[in-house]
Amino acid sequence: MNIGIVCYPTFGGSGVVATELGKALASKGHKVHFITYQQPVRLDLFSENIYYHEVKVSDYPLFDYQPYELVLTSKLVDVVKFEKLDILHVHYAIPHASAAYMAQHILKSEGIDIPFITTLHGTDITLVGKDSSFAPVITFAINESNAVTAVSESLKQDTLEHFNIKRKIEVIPNFICLEQYNLNVSIKELRDSFAPNNEKVLVHVSNFRKVKRTQDVIHIFDIVRKQLPAKLLMVGDGPERHHLEELCRELGACDLVKFVGKVKDTERILAASDVFILPSESESFGLAALEAMAAKTPVISTNTGGIPEVNEHGISGFLSNVGDVEDMATNTLKILENDTTLEKFKAGAYQQAKKFDINTILPVYENLYKSVIK
Ligand code: GMT
User: Fold this and answer.
1) Per-residue pLDDT at 145
2) For residue 162, which of 93, 127, 142, 301 sits 20 to 30 Å off, Cα-Cα?
């Protein structure tokens, strides 16, 4: 198949899922065209069957706000026509689904039929989409998609609750490429570089937005480090970083917390850590938790949204109520109690991650594509 993928190219989960899906489809022989405003962070353009079409955003001084949806629509029309695409798969509804709808209708007027699939990822529904200024367009674009998928049962229910949806939403969970986590290189050196005295290593990966409750990560760590020697790795960057650094200073924990910044391939850092912390306020799936589990790192998380579909309480980690930092710290200490318990949770995390292997999920997407292509 000749597939167009529209996504955000940034470090966010939806862009990562779209990129990994495209790479896996390309490795199976499909031609995959990424259409977005910047090369997706995890995309390797030298891979066979992968193409990238940049959406040029206008900088005309009249526009205080650049009309991205329109330039994206025009680009979609152009790429569908000239690359002879069979299908468009848009990740994140805003504004990708309505741009795809518009492109579909422009192409129809020229006698070209192109179906589009919308994958809902989370904040397009739970945060942004619920905003009444977006709701009519989002509702319409979801209803007009040729197929709609959500990354968890929880997100599907949220969508049905908050929007007037008249079409079927299929749940296709996020996935990981387990092979990528079979690291041949030793992680000992990396671990020794930040935990030279065999301290336990806690890790958090996110875009440091408010919804991630990153301050809770620091508070959990502060409780844990008072019980046993520990270090914390904060991977990523975002609006909360400044407050987090201030909090570390207040708690006198600066020497124990390392802000690593944005990292493209997190596999080695995750594998070199003992426990992953995800105290989010809301999370439609929690891809970062799944990536940790694939690296055999158990997860301490909240029980919000789709996280319970990913992290199994008592097996791959533990779940707590949002904001209950005491409970999350207690659970972290339970996992770190002794090597046997830690190994048990590491094995549990990996077993759970196996359920989300790309080899299981990819055929589901391929079948969905076939079902909508006439
Ligand atoms: O979580 C983010 O801040 C990024 C966001 C995105 O759309 O890029 O992530 C959402 O999609 C991910 C991939 O499907 C999910 O794993 C995340 O749980 C979801 N984030 C939220 O629901 C807050």
Assistant:
1) 98
2) 301
Please tell me the distance from the alpha carbon of residue 34 to that of residue 44, in angstroms, as a whole number: 11
Report the separation in Å between the CA atom of 275 and the middle of ligand 1, taken as the mean of its atom positions: 20
C-alpha 266/C-alpha 260 separation (Å) is 11
**pLDDT above 70 covers what percent of the chain?**
99
| Atom of ligand 1 lying closest to residue 280 CA | 23
Q: How many CB atoms lie within 10 A of CB 244?
A: 19
- Percentage of residues in the chain with pLDDT exceeding 90? 84
Distance CA 322, CA 130 (A): 21
- According to DSSP H, which parts of 109-152 are helical? 123-126, 135-144
Please name the residues in contact with 264: beta carbons below 8 A apart, sequence gap of 6 or more: 41, 42
Q: How far apart are the first and last CA of the chain?
A: 12
- For residue 184, the model assigns a pLDDT of 67
CATH number of the domain to which 215 belongs: 3.40.50.2000
Number of domains in the chain: 2
Give the residue numbers spanning the domain of 30. Answer: 2-175+357-372
Number of residues that this document lists for the chain: 374
Ligand 1 proximity of 290 Cβ (cutoff 6 Å): no
pLDDT, residue 180, reads: 87
**Do 313 and 213 share a structural domain?**
yes
Which atom in ligand 1 lies closest to the alpha carbon of residue 207?
Answer: 3
Q: Is the CB of 118 under 6 A from ligand 1?
A: no
Distance 264 CA to ligand 1 centre (A): 16
